[in-house]
Design brief:
four-stranded mixed sheet, Adenine-n6-DNA-methyltransferase TaqI, Chain A, domain 2, four-stranded antiparallel sheet, about 400 residues, alpha+beta, about 15% strand, 21 strands
């Protein structure tokens, strides 16, 4: 049971299923077509339909009909996808992957329910009650154990008004922080452009200044039974984030399997790059990554140490100049894809090793400052989310108005 105690005077405790208008699934026959929205349609900044269907053609999961004012929340564990149905979504189809609450005029505020369903208190309770082996989710039996504090309607309205006033101010601050993050990204690229702007772009091609350029292994060289947990990490594009290599140790292979494919073993100073999807996503292999394995979705460059500084190469490959070149030359119709010829022929103009080091030192100095600012912004964004939840907690304890 998740019954709530110590509520403010005049408030009541309502069962999510038994006391509130908890809408069952079922769509009456209709004419024409309706838009369909699944839980996957709900993004952080948008709601994107999955198609339009007649009654006879609609997917079996498209078994909820929403009306303006309804509040829906995704059932899956570890998700927060609460939405309020507005005029644009009125009368459209939604997945059974949501549960659905309908407001009562003069008694139950849609926005009050919406804010409660986005509170960490609710999501924690929901997650504790989720069940299922393949996809853990809140079923109706679990939902019966959830109780919600309900103040009188006028107080609901006052609470909503105060929540939205405070969250509006908070969101404005978050928007400014996010703008600053974008400006930092632009500044980083301007630094890289500055570093390489004087290159003639035709002195060499990449194969002339590297010991090795290696495309990741074919899928036939690695089989399902080769993958283990807590072995040698495989590095694919998903493991390269903002220049850092972030392994998933549940996606790894044995030392024996790695050693049987020596061409793909990474060494310190290699620069690994994703060869599918986003062009120019790369990371520098440092001491802790020695001996890790280049995945099938990646490739790596091993510079000639007497001609090419590893950090210089990493920053060069991260620049918009190279990204533009790769975008223009990558093959593939549905997803950009790099082959050996494309990366062999990446043009590069090299100053002396000493000059390369000067450029690297200057970049490192400026980028370190960027990193510290970015860290401060990230901390502020985390604090903003904590503050958001603090506002909601006080609201539903009757301490906000």
């Amino acid at each position: 049971m998740t019954e709530i105690k110590d509520i403010p005077k005049g408030w009541t405790i309502a069962s999510l299923v038994n006391d509130l208008p908890y809408i069952k699934t079922g769509v009456p026959e209709y004419k024409g077509k309706k838009k369909y929205f699944s839980t996957g349609s709900i993004k952080s900044d948008s709601i994107i339909e999955e198609g339009e269907y007649s009654f006879s053609e609609k997917p079996s999961r498209a078994n909820r009909l929403a009306i303006k004012g309804d509040v829906l929340q995704a059932r899956m564990k570890a998700t927060d996808k609460a939405i309020l149905i507005d005029a644009k979504l009125d009368g459209q189809l939604f997945s059974t992957g949501f549960f659905q609450i309908r407001p009562i005029e003069g008694k139950l505020s849609s926005n009050y329910i919406l804010h409660y369903l986005t509170s960490i208190k609710f999501t924690q309770i929901k997650d504790e009650l989720c069940s299922g082996s393949t996809q853990s989710a809140l079923n109706d039996e679990g939902a019966k154990k959830i109780f919600i504090p309900i103040p009188p309607f006028e107080e609901q309205q006052a609470i909503v008004a105060k929540i939205e006033e405070l969250l509006s101010e908070l969101d404005n601050g978050i928007t400014q922080l996010q703008k600053a993050q974008l400006q930092l990204k632009v500044y980083r690229q301007s630094l890289l452009k500055w570093a390489f702007v004087n290159t003639k772009f035709n002195d060499f091609v990449m194969k002339e200044v590297t010991e090795k350029i290696q495309i990741g292994p074919f899928g036939t060289q690695l089989h399902k039974e080769d993958y283990i947990t807590n072995g040698i990490p495989l590095i694919n594009p998903m493991h390269i984030q903002d220049g850092n290599i972030q392994p998933n140790f549940s996606y790894s292979i044995t030392k024996q399997k790695r050693d049987s494919l020596p061409n793909y073993i990474l060494q310190e100073g290699d620069v690994i790059m994703g060869r599918r999807g986003e062009m120019g996503r790369c990371g520098l292999v440092r001491k802790k990554e020695i001996g890790w394995f280049c995945g099938t979705g990646s490739l790596f460059f091993r510079p000639q140490s007497k001609r090419l500084n590893s950090l210089f190469l990493y920053y060069y490959l991260s620049s918009q100049t190279v990204k533009k070149y790769l975008d223009e030359n990558a093959g593939g119709t549905t997803m950009a894809n790099l082959n050996l010829k494309i990366v062999n022929d990446i043009p590069i103009s090299l100053p002396s090793l000493k000059e390369q080091q000067v450029i690297v030192d200057e970049l490192e100095s400026k980028l370190t400052v960027c990193d510290k600012i970015d860290e401060t912004i990230s901390q502020s964004l985390q604090q903003a989310e904590t503050l958001r939840q603090s506002i909601l907690k006080k609201a539903f304890e009757g301490k906000l108005v």
